[in-house]
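Need tokens for this chain, all 370 residues.
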Amino acid sequence: MTFPFDIKATDGRARTGVLKTARGDIRTPAFMPVGTAATVKAMTVDQVNQTGADIILGNTYHLMLRPGPERMERLGGLHKFMRWDKPILTDSGGFQVMSLSGISKLTEEAVTFSSHIDGSKHVLTPERSIQIQADRLGSDIVMQLDECVAYPAEEKRARQGMELSARWAVRSKNAFGTRDTQALFGIQQGSTYENLRKESSERLQEIGFDGYAIGGLAVGEGHEAMCEVLDYAPEFLPKDRPRYLMGVGKPIDLVEAVYRGVDMFDCVLPTRAGRHGQAWTWDGPINIKNAKFAEDESALDPMVPCPASQDFSRAYLHHLVKADEILGKILLSWHNIAFFQALTAAMREAIEKGEFEQFRKDFRARHLKT
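Here are the structure tokens for all 370 residues:
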């Protein structure tokens, strides 16, 4: 395998380890801030780095449209372009097959998009997706192109998506070949059907990947249904390779997924919520727009090691958000990313100490309050 994965400790199905890449170690459980268009929204790379993030995610579809993959290559790749020297994982564009289904056409060969920017046509095959990610953007972890089926899906439709993803996995692997400093992850599909998830995993392992993602969740099925799938889906994947749950999620989702054996996560939630006045804290989420914070002089969350969390009063943040000041979006996004990093660090520590079950119990009590 391209990147060694050293599992340091386990506690039940939860595990903590290190994925060693050419650009640095990724401590797991790991949360990857989403840098959709070569930026984590409302944050500088120095701020992202300060939060403790070991890796970020870039979006192939959006970077394909602008500034364009060939231009990205001429400018030295994504790392140099955005001044981030740690690992980057890029998604394949597969999620947009679902989310932009109204402006895309799917065939066995490829998915054809009409750009949401100017209507121009773009064809994305498994081979083109690998070329963009690995050769043009220069990402460290490359994802196979897959089809993410919308929820709910009948079993027949879920099988079609799983089987197409498996065929595209073969094409992605052939296009990727063997590389010394980049890794390729396959993506398990199958919606909420255990038999399909199992078959998908078996087919992926026959091909052989450096890591394995669990796709097709966080698409509207809800927390409980997601957990039901995670009761079995991670166990179908190799224990000695990283398991990445795509597009997840809320802090409680991360804790429950780690409990079930997941290692890596990404989600736009921290920065998206921050831009709309929501902050995640150790006592649960708060809406800083609420009037009760207008004269609250306490810090946002002094237990989160971040200037945005410790150095500004809730009253000041309330004012910034109500006045629609850009600084409010910046500070809340910074805090939220820092909270997610603090959460994964706390989970790693709890697993190492053999105390994850108690950690999970305490966290659920605070974050599932009615």
